[in-house]
């Protein structure tokens, strides 16, 4: 069902994207810094639940597109390459302030979970990401399109949740160090940005 070589590439790209600081990571870190590790973990679980909505939409939307229009699938594929390069450039040029999270309002764990879920569900960039990213790693000729998209989407979501939980644990444990050293986030973004650009260019010139 999968080309194992492309699956290895998917693992490499997905972990880099999940490690890149973004709204989900900032939200999780802020909750962990302000309310403790438990709040950060519930934030991560809420984001996981919200991401399931986008995965479901991608499964049915991409399957319909691929089954009805191979040229349109190719357009989406190349758009995904461009999007990966865009993510890399944005990481290189982005300058963020220290993420202290001290001004985040105190919320119950239920509200934190719901807020994380709704924030992810209502973010159109997440939907665009799945529609442009997942086609890079599936076989459009396979009779198991929905299974491929579902598997990759769930893997990405679960992997991202583990990363966010790790962020919650680390930010809670090393709160004082992270508050004083915001440059750690900036260096991580720049390194990730260079690798994402390289992977995007590699997918552009490679033949499936």
Give a quick set of tags describing it:
mainly alpha, 80% helix, 208 residues, 0% strand, 9 helices
Kindly describe this structure.
- With 208 residues, the protein is an all-alpha fold.
- The protein is 80% helix and 0% strand.
- Residues 97-103 have low confidence and may be disordered.
Summarize the structure.
With 208 residues, this protein is an all-alpha fold. The protein has helices spanning 4-19, 23-35, 37-68, 70-93, 109-121, 124-133, 145-173, 175-180, 183-205. It starts with a helix and ends with a helix.
Mean pLDDT: 76
Spans with pLDDT under 50 lasting ≥5 residues?
97-103
Number of strands: 0
Structural class: mainly alpha
Number of domains: 1
Q: Please give the alpha-carbon distance between the first and last residues.
A: 14 Å
Residues in helices, as a percent range: over 70%
How many helix segments? 9
Strand content: under 5%
Assembly state (oligomeric): single chain
Shape: globular
The main sheet comes to:
none
Kindly provide the radius of gyration, computed on alpha-carbon positions and rounded to a whole number of angstroms.
18 Å
What series of H and E elements makes up the topology? HHHHHHHHH
